[in-house]
Amino acid sequence: MRRKLYSFFALCTLLFSVSCSDSKLVTIGKAPEFSFTNQNNQTISNKDYKGKVYVVDFFFTTCPTICPIMTSSMVKVQNALEGKNVGFASFSINPENDTPEVLKEYAKQHGITSPNWHLLTGDEEAIYDLANNGFNLHAQNNAKGVDGFEHSGLFALIDQKGNIVSRKDADGNPMIYYNGLEDKQIEMLIEDIRLLIGMP
């Protein structure tokens, strides 16, 4: 009887630990370093996000297709976590057009109010290198794309230690990124940020 009882508790403990393990976020790798100019004409680097959870995306202000949806999704995250120590970094892939003044106006038009949300512009080559080689999020200056540009609609989540993290999918594999075009994925992103900052 005692052995059966022990086996039962051992099984419960195992199931509990697996459940907890499945609920944890997976570390994908270290987020790359960067330094660019924001909408307030301030130099912002990855060091400004030290100790913060933050979300990264790549966009451009004249994009008529996925960018407005992505920005709207990011605003949902901003509003859901208002007042929390959470940051956002949106990098323009059309820095020639997207000056700090243009980015500031874009922020006003789209409800970007968080002081920790930086719309970033700067050297074009450095931005494309950051997107494609740093975060592995596709961005391309391509005449065949909309307005001459192509880019991913995905968001990267970075934890307080500067690591790119994500939850696991239904098969137990890391999602790696969150789709900025899907409401369900944005809900997941908000849940995972809350988990990271210890918010119920």
Summarize the structure in words.
The protein has 200 residues and is of the alpha+beta class. The protein has five helices and eleven strands. The strands form three sheets. Strands 1, 4, 5, 6, 9, 10 and 11 form a seven-stranded mixed beta sheet that branches. It is globular, with a radius of gyration of 19 Å. Residues 1-22 have low confidence and may be disordered.
What features would you highlight for this structure?
11 strands; alpha+beta; two-stranded antiparallel sheet; 7-stranded mixed sheet; 200 residues; SCO family protein
Strands, helices and their partners?
Elements: H1 2-23, E1 26-30, E2 35-37, E3 43-45, E4 53-59, H2 66-80, E5 86-92, H3 100-109, E6 117-120, H4 124-134, E7 139-146, E8 149-151, E9 154-158, E10 163-166, E11 178-179, H5 183-197
Series of H and E elements: HEEEEHEHEHEEEEEH
Strand tally: 11
Separate helix tally: 5
Beta strand %: 25-35%
Rg calculated over all Cα atoms: 19 Å
- Report how far apart the termini are: 40 Å
- For the report, how would you describe the main beta sheet? 7 strands, mixed
* Oligomerization state: single chain
User: What is the approximate shape?
Assistant: globular
Uncertain stretches: 1-22
